[in-house]
Write a structure and sequence with these properties.
Two copies of one chain form a homodimer. In chain A, 49% of the residues lie in helices and 16% in strands. Chain A is α/β, with parallel strands linked by helices and 341 residues long. Chain A has a domain at 1-125 and 293-324: Isopropylmalate Dehydrogenase. In chain A, helix 7 links the parallel strand 7 (179-183) and strand 8. The longest helix of chain A is centred in the last third of the chain and has 27 residues, at 232-258. Chain A is globular. At the A-B interface, helix 8 and helix 10 of A face helix 8 and helix 10 of B. Chains A, B: Belongs to the PlsX family. Chains A, B: One of its GO terms (biological process) is fatty acid biosynthetic process. Chains A, B: It is found in: Cytoplasm. Chains A, B: This is Phosphate acyltransferase.
Chain lengths: 341, 341
């Protein structure tokens, strides 16, 4: 039997199951010792697996699910009306111990709601958070959380995000004492709202975290922190704004290149270099985002993910599982709660 | 006598009064019919004006102020301890009618606090807002507010920002029925927190504003809205994150260019094109940000502004003054309040 088992929601994402099966084929080559449970419409998946010569592969199990969560389904609706969706079934495989982790490229809101409902939070954890790695100027990555699981957070929740992010940076990014910062509208202590100010005090007082203070938006990619904490509203808008701007900026640069025959001539060579910069700046697309604080590993792949991007999400799920991220977070949160008693 | 009078805080900004005097010299050529009151240390300014051959210029008045607000002064401290700062004196010239508008490149927090204290908000206006133009994909600009004057906003305040931004887009951007959107973490009605949801209802119900719904961060530059409304915490972090990312992205592109002798050869030609894209994406630097909702025009120039950027801030102050932005906002807010009665 394989050491790890991964449940793949094959029906999520903008491009449907063919991307998931394509990524799975690559994963079977690159990843050893892992079993995959592919969840979704049996007829459609059988056809795709047959085409890919994977139908009776010893490391693949096909698990039928009669429903599919669409990208426009509202979270509450999908929870009530789609109990047999591929997403829900994949999450339940993690909940009942049949799988170690789950990857889905489906509707983010639905995934968060279903994951919260199905897997529950770890003991002591107030709220799960959506966390992603973002590139840093001097190389390497930093984790940023929350990216949209919680539109409103209190100080205790932000404090816990600091703890959880710190554990994740240690385990996944291999950083010894991760520098944890709060995202704020100014770096001075008096700046911001009461929630971040109180969260700053909590982080400052805790020996469990290497808190370095506030950072501003323009330091998001500056390599000043390893873990950047904010509420889901701010995190979502900050990261999506960056995506919007990068797209516009590259469009603009392309236009400027095309405006001159000499630069146009170089466009092919240059375009790949640009593309490299751009891919690097779409961590959600490239790496997948983790839903942490739950009793299991759940990775949200970008809905627009191609095979390579979905493969990255699979690799991320394996990494977090091998590093026992949920139980490490549980232990640390327990330590913090014991200290506070 | 000149038609308009502008008060310039000559001591603000990272580069001190020489940038302001340099910009003033350019403004005297490009702008007719305007008188300038230069506020700051008399000795230092006399020396600089003498060097620039501007000492007895008929359109310049020198106004001494014994104190200077530093970039690190806390707003409350600067308000209490520096009543004779160049920033405060420049604002008071607007308050007492000696000047039509004021431009400062000084400490943003101090400027907002002093402006609020000295000029007060317009009748019916709950809170002033910091507003800036940002470039849009298909050309043109959109206004975004608030960018940091209010770390926490209630729904009524966001609603008023929509009204004020709408008036500004009509008067300054010459857009007939500006499309007003709320920045949210999702475009569906159920997304976000209670404050934006209630603000959405208020905007939807008002005939005074062309409300088009929520937009997400990645649409900030997409040309979907003419006025983008959010609280100061979110706006500040969104725009600064974009600045941070753009800087990193261009750094990265430059590195990729430099890595190959063929592209390196083109770097001089290309650098200027890149620089063009980049300048265009730093609206705060390029245009200055407006503090609106007050009984007078106040423009915050970027602290790092060079002469050309400071000149843009001067031009923006003149534009808003000529368009009678404060009284237009007052009238519209009055209309809205009458409707709500």
């Amino acid at each position: 039997m394989a050491a790890l088992t991964l449940a793949l929601d094959a029906m999520g994402g903008d491009h449907g199951p063919s991307v998931v099966i394509g990524a799975l084929k690559q994963a079977l080559n690159s990843v050893s010792d892992t079993h995959f449970i592919v969840v979704g419409d049996e007829t459609e998946l059988t056809e795709l697996l047959t085409k890919a010569n994977l139908l009776d592969h010893p490391r693949i199990t096909l698990k039928h699910a009669s429903q599919t969560v669409t990208m426009t389904d509202k979270p509450g609706y999908s929870l009530r009306a789609k109990p047999d969706s591929s997403m829900r079934v994949a999450l339940e495989l993690v909940a009942d111990g049949s799988a170690d982790a789950c990857v889905s490229a489906g509707n983010t809101g639905a995934l968060m709601t279903k994951a919260y409902f199905t897997l529950k939070t770890l003991p002591g954890v107030l709220r799960p958070a959506l966390m992603s790695a973002i590139p840093q100027a001097r190389g390497g990555s930093a984790f940023i959380l929350d990216l949209g699981a919680n539109p409103v957070c209190d100080s205790d929740t932000l404090f816990q995000f600091g703890i959880m992010g710190s554990v994740a940076a240690q385990q996944v990014l291999n950083i010894d004492r991760p520098r944890v910062a709060l995202l704020n509208m100014g770096s001075e202590e008096i700046k911001g709202n009461d929630v971040v100010k109180t969260a700053a005090q909590l982080l400052q007082q805790s020996p469990q975290v290497n808190y370095i203070g506030f950072i501003e938006g323009d330091d998001l990619f500056a390599g000043k922190a390893d873990v950047i904490v904010c509420d889901g509203f701010v995190g979502n808008i900050a990261l999506k704004s960056c995506e919007g701007l990068a797209e516009l900026l590259l469009d603009n640069i392309r236009t400027n290149i095309h405006a001159h025959w000499l630069t146009r001539w170089f466009v092919k060579l240059f375009y790949r270099r640009l593309q490299k910069s751009w891919d690097w700046l779409k961590p959600d697309h490239y790496n997948g985002a983790s839903l942490i604080g739950l009793r299991g590993v759940v990775i949200k792949s970008h809905g627009d993910a191609n095979e390579r991007a979905f493969l990255s999400a699979i690799e991320q799920a394996l990494e977090e599982t091998q590093q026992h991220l949920p139980s490490r977070i549980r232990d640390r949160v327990e330590d913090v709660l014991l200290e506070q008693e």
